[in-house]
TrEMBL record:
Residues 1-56 are annotated as: Disordered. Residues 223-322 form the Copper amine oxidase N3-terminal domain. InterPro entries: Cu_Am_Ox_Cu-bd, Cu_Am_ox_TPQ-bd, Cu_amine_oxidase, Cu_amine_oxidase_C, Cu_amine_oxidase_C_sf, Cu_amine_oxidase_N-reg, Cu_amine_oxidase_N2, Cu_amine_oxidase_N3. This is Amine oxidase.
């Protein structure tokens, strides 16, 4: 899975191709885009229809009664007069102008910048400040020595919640922007990793120590591997390869060094050892071809690279064709003596590369024309201003945390906050297998800086061509900010099914009415390609106040060399390749603020009841009755995998009610097939205690900001962040500021159809946030996409709609373009 890209034609994060800075100007670009799309729609249709080019305006039912309901577009009974049509266009244009002016005033106050990721300018300012502090002794991260002090990671330090809310809700000054910086101090007697909070930005002048809950120290051996350390790994592998060059060539037809088009590469496995303080890594060799992840060659080696002097690194074990050896020399000696089982792979056929995307096989689509495309007939209906997004009543701020990934803040519907934070925390993939690398593979992806793996998205494939694409900037294992072009996208799409509909039959061959509403959703998307696996991260926002969090898994499976015993741990997917079984788990933080911060939690289930039938006393009624369970403490609301899990998980405000007297609430609905990955307390499981619970409820604490860290991967045995600490004190959770910690996932037993790649259908999991008596009625009633059809007195259909009758059908003529580089700026 995890592989250091060798110097064979790959671009690295340190590339210096100049690129522009900043994330500003999206609002103006959006307006230009709207104007261009509108012009296209006119050219395409040959007639003018109303285009709503400004932000949406919330209109009350009373306003709708006077301005719209009285004059709907009645189609099928005649043609709207020219004067009426022009009046409607002028009215819409006037409303759009008023709404745009009003919205600009509101946007000046939205406060999303509190949560905006660090800009390249801020990153450089923090770097320069820290390098100016002589006591830190910082040098370049690219310095080839491992005995150095250097910056590993820099990302936004999110302010305390109460500080942010003072600005968001009371209009007070925004808290100063700060950076969280990870520094590895290796050039001193006692090497360590230390985190600092640096600020204020953009002109930092101070830094202070950042600590973890319980003041746990960061083990130096737990640090992620840097690109420089990988270069030294590559060097020792070259030394090993020279000793086994004959074995590799005779066994595979490929070599690790002095090769041309038949080269070997490697993937490294984590965690790196079996107990705290170790830094021992199993490395597996693979054919260096397109899709090398599924080309293992039956050679694995265990390297001890704990020492900061690479010359002192050692080889501790070698595995070749199912056999273990204590040294490279032992393998070579026994191979030459002919006392071991030798390996001979089939001749490599470049014309039959099973890992490639090149089409093969019989096509079931008897045409080469394009499939359907998504269009915006009158331009986009959402607004983006920096990291602030507004759509159909929704508004939120977003960021992509370098260590973890996509996060949403200050999530509101119709101006009322639903959640303060919905954020990705961690993703793991725990494997089983017969080879040493396979049985050691337990990936904890924040340890690979999962958020920095958000590479360029391809228009028309990863996101629709109409999407708004946003560049991301990260500062990880580098000396300068690195630009990830088009790494995030925002778009509105149709689900191709109604949000709701009803056909009301008159049971006489006709109907009384038909009503329907198109189901449009806004999607914010990014990806994490953590070497072999690609995770697609989506947050979806529906018109009826529902939010969905979804992750789809694709990319290459983590494959190992096939052995007969390996069939206990997976499926044979090629003549010498085993697809290893594994479980994906993803953890989210959901800080709900439902109608305020004072929330409580209950579950709703059904119980059977019996009673005498009141209208037929000789009979008994048996039916379900609602059964509510109130949860008062954190421990009681920590649901374990393997135990009965309630179906309705309800967060509510006891003091806020809707029109019908019900407490305003939201519920979490799971779409998941997750289960635990290891027995409780078993070695590496100690690093992921959150994986014990599909759902756990805690009181909000700023000291409990995350459930994992970048250090857990290489020291899961004594983690810096232990989620179990969050619920150990068993605090009261009634009328408190609550946080829901959600675990979703699925078991993946690879199969032949995972070649070349795992497909997304059936491999997507997540959860919904659904209003539960939060509103008085479905808020999507405010949507203008509703269509109502009634028969008139003569039986002819009378159509009512609140959008233009004619929609555009133009697809952009902009050709496909993709660059794929990510460079320093």
């Amino acid at each position: 899975m995890h592989f250091q890209e060798k110097l064979r034609g790959f671009r690295h994060r340190g590339d210096t191709t100049p690129q522009h800075d900043g994330l500003s100007g999206f609002q103006e670009k959006g307006k230009e885009r709207e104007r261009e799309e509108y012009k296209k729609s006119l050219d395409c249709r040959g007639k003018t229809t109303s285009a709503w080019t400004g932000p949406s305006k919330q209109i009350s039912a009373a306003e709708l009664t006077h301005s719209e309901q009285s004059n709907p577009q009645e189609l099928g009974t005649g043609i709207i007069g020219v004067d009426m049509w022009l009046s409607l266009v002028l009215l819409l244009a006037s409303l759009a102008t008023q709404a745009a002016t009003s919205r600009e005033r509101e946007w000046a106050q939205h406060g999303a910048s509190i949560f905006a990721d660090l800009t390249p300018r801020e990153m450089r300012a923090v770097r320069d400040y820290l390098h100016s502090r002589s006591e830190l002794g910082l040098v370049s991260a690219r310095d080839k020595s491992l005995k150095k002090n250097s910056i590993l990671l820099m990302e936004l330090h999110v302010p305390r919640k109460h500080e942010a809310l003072r600005a968001l809700d009371r209009g007070q000054a925004k808290p100063p922007r700060q950076a969280c910086v990870v520094i590895q101090f290796a050039n001193q007697a006692h090497p360590n990793v230390t985190e600092y909070i640096v600020g204020p930005l953009p002109f930092p002048d101070s830094h202070q120590l950042k600590t973890f809950k319980g003041d746990r120290p960061i083990s130096f051996e737990s640090r992620p591997i840097s690109s420089v350390e990988y270069e030294h790994v590559d060097a020792i592998l070259n030394k090993i390869a020279k000793k086994v060059n004959k074995i590799l060539h005779e066994s595979t037809g490929f070599t690790f060094s002095n090769c041309t088009d038949r080269c070997l590469t490697f993937s490294d496995i984590a965690p790196r050892g079996l107990e705290p303080g170790e830094r021992r890594t199993w490395i597996m060799l693979q054919k260096f071809v397109e899709g090398y992840f599924i080309h293992p060659v039956g050679f694995e080696v265990l390297i001890n690279h704990k020492d900061l002097d690479p010359e002192k690194w050692t080889v501790e074990k070698v595995w070749y064709n199912g056999q273990y050896f204590d040294s490279v020399e032992e393998l070579v000696e026994k191979y030459e003596m002919g006392t071991i089982s030798k390996l001979k792979l089939p001749e490599h056929d470049e014309q039959d590369l099973y890992s490639t995307y090149i089409p093969r096989g019989h096509s079931n689509t008897h045409t080469n024309i394009h499939g359907p495309k998504l269009v915006e007939p009158q331009g986009p209906r959402y607004q983006v201003d920096g990291n602030f997004v507004e759509y159909a009543g929704w508004s939120f701020a977003y960021r992509v945390r370098s260590s973890a990934g996509l996060q949403i803040y200050d999530l509101r519907f119709n101006g009322e906050r639903v959640a303060y934070e919905v954020s990705l925390q961690e993703a793991i993939a725990f494997y089983s297998g017969d080879t040493p690398a396979a049985m050691q593979t337990k990936y904890i992806d924040a340890g690979w800086a999962m958020g920095t793996s958000d590479y360029e998205l391809a228009p028309g494939i990863d996101c629709p061509e109409i999407a708004t694409f946003v560049d991301m900037y990260h500062f990880y294992d580098t000396d300068k900010p690195v630009r990830y072009k088009n790494a995030l996208c925002i778009f509105e799409m149709t689900t191709a099914s109604p949000l709701r509909r009803h056909f009301n039959s008159n049971f006489k061959g006709g109907y009384n009415f038909y009503g329907g509403l198109e189901n449009h959703v806004l999607v914010i998307r990014t990806t994490s390609t953590v070497y072999n696996y690609d995770y697609i991260w989506d947050f979806l926002f529906y018109q009826n106040g529902v939010m969905e969090s979804r992750v789809s898994a694709t990319g290459y499976i983590h494959a190992t060399f096939f052995t007969e015993n390996g069939l206990n741990y997976g499926t044979r997917v090629y003549n010498y390749v085993l697809g290893n079984l594994h479980t994906h788990l993803v953890h989210y933080k959901v800080d709900l603020d439902v109608a305020g911060r004072d929330n409580s939690f209950e579950s709703l289930e059904l119980k059977y009841v019996n009673f005498t039938n009141p209208w037929s006393p000789k009979h008994t009624i048996k039916q379900s009755i609602l059964h509510r369970t109130q949860y008062e403490t954190e421990r009681s609301a920590a649901f374990r995998f393997g135990k009965k899990f309630p179906r309705y998980l309800h967060f509510y405000n006891q003091n806020q009610k809707n029109k019908w007297g019900h407490q305003k609430g939201y519920r979490i609905q799971f779409n998941s097939h997750a289960n635990s990955v290891l027995p409780r307390g078993w070695r590496e499981e100690n690093g992921i205690p959150w994986s014990r619970y599909p759902l756990a409820i805690t009181r909000h604490k700023d000291s409990e900001a995350t459930s994992s860290s970048i250090y857990t991967q290489n020291d899961p045995w004594e983690p810096v962040v232990s989620f179990e600490d969050y619920i150990r004190n068993n605090e009261n959770i009634v009328n408190q500021d609550l946080v829901a910690w959600v675990t979703v996932g699925f078991l993946h037993i690879p199969h032949s159809e995972d070649i070349p790649n795992t497909a997304t259908p059936g491999n997507a999991v997540g959860f919904f946030l659904r209003p539960f008596n939060f509103f008085n009625e479905d808020p999507s009633l405010a949507s203008r996409s509703t269509v109502i059809v009634r028969p008139d007195k003569e039986g002819k259909p009378k159509v009512q709609r609140w959008t233009p009758e004619v929609v555009g059908h133009c697809v952009s003529d902009k050709p496909f373009f993709y660059n794929g580089t990510y460079v320093g700026v």
